[in-house]
Design goal:
Helix 1 runs antiparallel to helix 3. The chain contains 3 helices and 8 strands; from the N terminus they run H-E-E-E-E-E-E-E-H-E-H. The chain folds into 2 domains: 65 residues; 120 residues, OB fold (Dihydrolipoamide Acetyltransferase, E2P). Helix content is 30%, strand content 25%.
């Protein structure tokens, strides 16, 4: 009978125990991700079912990041002198930017930042933006979006200072260079109903790209638990065979 208390066997056993622990932890992490995804889906679905929110002086104090994806209607006038853009935006595989423009809410001095939509890269220089002005009092319909305070994994944050073009819709930072006090969220303006004769007009609006499925988290969790179980059961069987 072989001795199983040699350094080799002790090291092998320690590695198996560690591997099982890591796999179980990865499975639990996937379950945590699943719970987060379900909570997100429930919150977004609840907002999508709500009637449009009328944004006025009387209601803006009720606005919060938890209302993200709620439909919003607001009346006001754009201040194009304070406009900025969001870089690295694509439309039908074409590069461009999104225009972010403060809309001064009717009857007030306060504004909400509106993502008015996409313009092509060849027209993305600030000197060209005024060609896309929508002057006068306008009614904007869109969805509420949370401000972006940090870049996603692999993304690039914005440098300090005054910027015309931003990597993130960081409302708090953009507010520092805008003459009007901004609400802490922004609106993504949604497209008007399409008619057969409608011509393409810039900026091109878009709806949020939402995935309300549960993804693959449960499947990945079950796989990690299965791997851990196979190793935890199989290793003792392998050890017995060596005796």
């Amino acid at each position: 009978m072989k001795c199983l208390f040699t350094r080799k066997w002790i090291a092998a056993t320690a590695l198996v125990v560690l591997a099982v622990g890591v796999m179980v932890r990865l499975g639990l992490w996937q379950l945590d991700r699943l719970a987060e995804r379900r909570a997100f889906n429930a919150r977004v679905s609840a907002q999508l079912e709500q009637p449009p929110f009328e944004l006025t002086r009387a209601t803006w104090d009720r606005i919060s990041a938890e209302m993200e994806y709620r439909s919003v209607r607001v009346i006001g006038e754009y201040d194009f002198s304070q406009q900025v853009a969001l870089r690295n935006q694509a439309y039908e595989n074409h590069a461009g930017v999104h225009l972010l423009t403060p809309l001064v809410i009717a009857g007030t001095e306060r504004a909400v930042l509106v993502n008015r939509g996409w313009i092509p890269a060849e027209q993305a220089a600030p000197a060209n933006w005024r060609a896309f002005d929508e002057p006068g009092v306008v009614e904007v319909r869109g969805v509420l979006r949370r401000a972006q305070t940090r870049a996603d994994f692999g993304g690039v944050s914005d440098p300090p200072g005054f910027l015309f073009v931003w990597n993130l819709a960081n409302v708090e930072r953009i507010a520092q260079q805008v003459a009007h006090p901004l609400l802490p969220v922004y609106l993504q303006q949604t497209p008007a109903p399409i008619t057969p004769t409608a011509a393409r007009v810039y900026p091109i609006r878009s709806k949020p790209n939402l995935d309300l499925t549960e993804g693959s988290h449960l499947g990945y969790a079950l796989q990690w638990f299965a791997f851990a179980g196979v190793l935890a059961i199989g290793y003792p069987q392998f050890v017995r065979a060596q005796k």
